[in-house]
Amino acid sequence: MPKKKIALAVAGLALLGISQIIPITSLSASVPAPVTNPAALVDSPRQEVMAWINEQAKDPVTTDSFQFQTVNLDDDDNMEIIAKHNGAVHIGSFYVLDRQADGSYKLIAEESWNVPRFQLDRWDPTRYEDNSEWNSQSVQELGRVAGKRLFETINRTGGSGVDILEAHLWYLQDGKLVEAWSGTLQGTSSIPGGQLIQIAGSYQLVGADTEHPQLYTWQTTQELDPDTGLPLSKKAETTTEILSWNNGAFQKTSQK
Ligand SMILES: [Ca+2]
Ligand SMILES: [Ca+2]
User: Fold this and answer.
1) If DSSP codes are grouped into helix, strand and coil, which group holds residue 188?
2) Domain of life of the organism in this record (predicted)?
3) Is 104 found in the same domain as 18?
4) What is the whole-number distance in angstroms between the Cα of residue 156 and the centre of ligand 1?
5) Do 141 and 241 fall within a single domain?
6) pLDDT tens string for the chain (256 positions)?
7) Which ligand is nearest to the CA of 75?
8) What DSSP string runs through 58-123?
């Protein structure tokens, strides 16, 4: 029964053409249904999605911090599912599931990203939150870069003395997750010997809707006083790169 229920819910979403991120749980909760146990109704899609993942994943979901959303990621009208779980410090997984003809979901991507939150379209400043006339493009066209619908996912990674927020820009192609770029947004790193280094970085996409999109990236590193956390000197170093879209990813422009 739960399998049928979620398949119907997702098929319903596709029919309605709702392509914004909508949790299945809230959808189920808003549909009056003759059930005697409402808690079971709300929880079943979550259990179902987790079961699909755990049947197929290399690293299954092992914690309670599991979340998922339905979102239209590719060119078909069916909703795809993104999911994540966060384990111990800096450990987590990010999953993408694609709907199959029988209504079940196949795990098509699994990344060892510890994702604080889903904000797939964070990089795209052209998108408004409502469906007003400000959105002159259809949702399917938003966030498109060189013909691909590009998404951003943050990985909070690190290890002993290292804490890094890393951005991944990716898209789906032929049922696979393809990474177009990744880089550091922020981080601190303790170096043996007592040094503390701070990193701050970012990126901007320009010409996203043209044939030749470019990615401007920059990164500043600065040594901090390990006791006060304040910059030790004015010796901040900044590197910048301008990357061009080449073979489905942002790469350094070759010098001619
Ligand atoms: Ca789709
Ligand atoms: Ca699909």
Assistant:
1) strand
2) Bacteria
3) yes
4) 27
5) yes
6) 444 455 544 444 444 444 444 444 433 334 444 444 444 444 589 999 999 999 999 999 988 899 999 999 998 999 999 999 998 888 999 999 999 999 899 999 999 999 999 999 889 887 777 777 777 777 677 788 999 999 999 999 998 889 999 999 999 999 999 999 999 999 999 988 889 999 999 999 999 888 899 999 999 999 999 889 899 887 899 999 999 999 999 999 765 5
7) 1
8) SS---SS-EEEEEE--SSSSSPEEEEEEE-STT-EEEEEEEE-TTS-EEEEEEE----S---TTTT
Tell me: do 142 and 21 sit in the same domain. Answer: no
Residues 130 and 89 reside in one and the same domain: no
From the CA of 14, how far away is ligand 1's center (Å)? 8
Cα 176 from Cα 109, distance rounded (Å)? 6
Ligand 2: distance of its center to the CA of 39 in Å?
A: 29
**147 and 256 co-located in one domain:** yes
How many whole angstroms from 247 Cα to the centroid of ligand 1?
Answer: 23
Please tell me the distance from the alpha carbon of residue 22 to that of residue 11, in angstroms, as a whole number: 13
* Cα–Cα distance, 56 to 59 (Å, whole number): 9
Structure-block tokens of residue 14? 């596709």
Token look-up 């749980």 returns 25
CA 74–ligand 2 middle distance (angstroms): 6
| CA 71 – ligand 2 centroid, Å | 10
CA of 70 to the centre of ligand 1 (A): 10
Are 52 and 143 contained in the same domain? no
- From ligand 1's centre to the CA of 161, what distance in Å? 40
Which residue range forms the structural domain that includes residue 146?
Answer: 119-256
